[in-house]
């Protein structure tokens, strides 16, 4: 049985050819899948009943299940999706009151090997990569359930997208071609996998690259992000500068603010120095609580102070709006497990 979700127009044409139907039928099926997001072949109402019956013999729309759906009081929706092998992943739909945009926060892996100390995903370790079809199914699940069209995508769910680069790039191509979501409306967030940043620069990725820096110096960064021992901030800086040189694009620096750890005035100054020769915007992310660590979110006052000091260095600084914290759907809270189920980029203030 072929699964239609995730297939390109050409691949759908192969199916319609095998049924001796015209290429136009393939285009219709393609639009039903990606633009109208139907659940069933029977919902493709401009296909004849006879043709639908034939198609149903060899294909189905999707093979994933929504295991749990949770709606936050701010409108954020979190889905726990189950793939045929029984593995689950979370995906989040965020809406921002002042905009028409609907942003899907997608996962790229089950678990994550990077194991940052502040993140719930890393706690599970790495289980497996998602295929590009499994990444796409997350956005289709949202569209099927809400009847709405996703307009923006951020690779900020579970997993490190640059450690699954082929599938992420292929998914991005399909978001572009089939969902008609422009590359500029897609953001890929990485913890700083240096060789793959060079790789992206070669690819001339049109999307925004966001980098989770989270510390102003080597000592603090290695305390919270083990990746610093592999690719340190100096190597990272070289890669980022080369990326900006090659692509001409401004990158987004994500900086998690943890009380008394990296939110001091000295940290702000040191961070400004580090970033002074990198063409970037800065997105501050106040820490969201996850179980099993004693980090705390700084007060609003210190967040604003930190923001002000950075702005002084001439950069554009935004503070990420917290979304879906009441259902554990905010950054870093995704676990991808059903048991104990109580769990932008430019979401600025
Ligand atoms: N693996 C990628 C993308 C997924 S995480 C990365 O690390 O960049 C998306 C963002 O959420 C990252 O910036 C990550 O550091 C941040 N994050 C993780 N845990 C968090 C927490 N507890 N509170 C706030 N942000 C968190
Ligand atoms: Fe992995 Fe990103 Fe979580 Fe770090 S923050 S453990 S890289 S998902």
Query: Low-confidence segments, ≥5 residues, pLDDT <50?
Result: 339-349
Strand content: 15-25%
Separate helix tally = 10
Radius of gyration using CA atoms only: 21 Å
H-E string: EHHHEEEEEEEHEHEHEHHEHEHE
Shape verdict: elongated
- Which architecture name of the largest domain does CATH use? Alpha-Beta Barrel
Q: How would you describe this structure to a colleague?
A:
This protein is an alpha/beta fold and 349 residues long. The protein folds into two domains: 2-60, DNA polymerase, domain 1; 65-341, TIM Barrel (Alpha-Beta Barrel), CATH 3.20.20. Helix content is 33%, strand content 19%. It is built from ten helices and 14 strands. The strands form three sheets. A ten-stranded mixed sheet has the order 3-4-5-6-9-10-11-12-13-14, with helices on one face. Helix 1 (9-18) packs across helix 2, helix 6 (194-203) runs parallel beside helix 8 (233-247) and helix 9 (265-275) packs parallel to helix 10. It is elongated. It starts with a strand and ends in a 30-residue tail after the last strand. Mean pLDDT is 92; it is low at 339-349. Bound molecules: S-adenosyl-L-homocysteine and iron/sulfur cluster.
SSE map:
Layout: E1 2-3, H1 9-18, H2 23-34, H3 49-58, E2 59-60, E3 65-71, E4 77-82, E5 88-95, E6 102-105, E7 109-111, E8 126-129, H4 132-146, E9 152-155, H5 165-177, E10 186-190, H6 194-203, E11 208-212, H7 218-224, H8 233-247, E12 251-257, H9 265-275, E13 280-286, H10 300-311, E14 317-319
Parallel strand pairs: 1-2, 6-9, 9-10, 10-11, 11-12, 12-13, 13-14
Antiparallel strand pairs: 3-4, 4-5, 5-6, 7-8
Helix pairs in contact: 1-2, 4-5, 6-8, 9-10
The structure holds S-adenosyl-L-homocysteine and iron/sulfur cluster.
């Amino acid at each position: 049985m072929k699964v239609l979700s995730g297939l390109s127009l050409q691949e759908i044409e192969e199916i319609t050819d095998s049924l001796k139907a015209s290429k136009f039928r393939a285009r219709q099926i393609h639009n039903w899948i990606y633009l109208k997001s139907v659940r069933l072949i029977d919902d493709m109402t401009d296909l004849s009943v006879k043709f639908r019956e034939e198609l149903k013999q060899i294909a189905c729309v999707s093979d994933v299940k929504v295991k749990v759906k949770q709606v936050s009081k701010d409108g954020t929706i979190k889905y726990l999706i189950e793939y045929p092998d029984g593995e689950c992943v979370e995906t989040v739909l965020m809406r921002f009151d002042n905009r028409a945009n609907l942003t899907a926060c997608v996962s790229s892996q089950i678990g994550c090997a990077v194991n940052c100390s502040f993140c719930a995903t890393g706690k599970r370790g790495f289980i497996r990569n998602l295929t590009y079809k499994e990444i796409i199914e997350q956005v289709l699940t949202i569209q099927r359930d809400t009847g709405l069209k996703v307009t923006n995508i951020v690779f900020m769910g579970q997993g490190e997208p640059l450690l699954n680069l082929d599938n992420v790039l292929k998914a991005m191509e399909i978001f572009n071609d089939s969902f008609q979501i422009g590359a500029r409306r897609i953001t890929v967030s990485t913890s700083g996998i240096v060789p793959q940043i060079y790789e992206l620069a070669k690819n001339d990725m049109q999307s925004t690259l966001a980098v989770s820096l989270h510390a102003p110096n080597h000592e603090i960064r290695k305390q919270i992000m083990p990746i610093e021992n592999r690719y340190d901030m100096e190597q990272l800086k070289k890669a980022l500068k080369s990326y900006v040189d090659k692509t001409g694009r401004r990158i987004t620096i994500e900086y998690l603010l943890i009380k008394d750890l990296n939110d001091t005035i000295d940290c702000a100054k040191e961070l400004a120095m580090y970033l002074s020769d990198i063409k970037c915007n800065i997105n501050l992310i106040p820490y969201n609580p996850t179980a099993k660590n004693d980090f705390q979110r700084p007060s609003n006052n210190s967040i604003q102070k930190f923001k002000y000091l950075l702005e002084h260095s001439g950069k554009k600084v935004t503070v990420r709006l917290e979304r879906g914290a009441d259902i554990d759907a905010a950054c870093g809270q995704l676990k991808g497990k059903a048991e104990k189920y109580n769990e932008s980029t430019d979401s600025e203030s």
